[in-house]
């Protein structure tokens, strides 16, 4: 199984820190899976111009193709100005409408205030649903106070990250088994 972590911002350190913890946990618990972390801060991504994702080259082509090849995706996003960052929205715009069909998607959200917990519910989940994602229903929400010197210091957050990793893999395997059983019904 291919699992991709996507750190959806080009600034700040908290989302990357949270994604590092999450990817580390997935690797520890499920070393048999191929796990890749894409941090948008490390790439030069073009703005979406309506082309098919296969037509993009360079970093943009690499990011879109890696996401499309994944079986499961963990999206990490900060909340800026009560919204997801434009860099993350651009990634969604680069992909086709059905980009997340047959993919399980989990979320790790970092924010400066507890008041921003609904951004994932009101902005991110509708986008992922529209793009046909099978979502892990509970996401990890991490506040500013849960970090200290680029480390997560809240044990409850670490437990939720652990649970997200487990839920992602179990849900992915379950949906894969359902798809295989359905395909086996056809006689061609």
TrEMBL record:
Keyword Ion transport: no
Source domain of life: Bacteria
InterPro entries: Flavoprotein-like_sf (IPR029039), FMN_Rdtase-like_dom (IPR005025), NAD(P)H-dep_FMN_reductase (IPR051814)
Domain (NADPH-dependent FMN reductase-like): residue spans on this chain: 1-143
EC number of this enzyme: 1.-.-.-
Pfam family, one: FMN_red
Gene3D superfamilies for this protein: 3.40.50.360
A GO term, aspect molecular function: oxidoreductase activity
Alphabetical keyword list: Flavoprotein, FMN, Oxidoreductase
PANTHER family in alphabetical order: FMN REDUCTASE (NADPH)
Name of the protein in question: NADPH-dependent FMN reductase
